[in-house]
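To: structure subgroup
Subject: Chain for Friday's discussion

All,

I'm putting the inputs and outputs inline so they're searchable in the archive.
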Amino acid sequence: MKFYVLLAFLVTACNFPKDPENTFENAQEHQLKIGVTENIPFTSKNEEGKEIDFLKEFARSENLETEFIYGSESDLIEKLEKREIAILTGGFDKNTIWVKKAGLSRPYDSIHVFLIPKGENKLLQHLELFIHKNKQP
């Protein structure tokens, strides 16, 4: 009996972490689409800022091309919910008002996070591993 329980666990674990919409694979095959709402010094419209630099480095570490999509927070949250973007950046803290509509990464410093689609585990796992290795003060 223990063998069958172990076998069932191993078979279901083969597809871990889950990537329900293949966001990570789509980013590998195409581009990592990052929504950006301007919030200096974290982000700016000319692809600069500490969060932009951090995400560019994350993309490089995963060999991903990036596309930055600019807009208002509400427009970009809608795109995130529709999975038209994979990550949303803009100086959000872990107490963001968008917590009901988006998943949150762990803080890359003491309080700031990136927003991702709810239920997105594989992308989040890769991003959080990068955050862990590159945590800023």
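Points worth raising on Friday:
Helices lie at 2-13, 23-29, 50-61, 73-81, 122-133.
The CA atoms of residues 87 and 116 lie 5 Å apart.

D.
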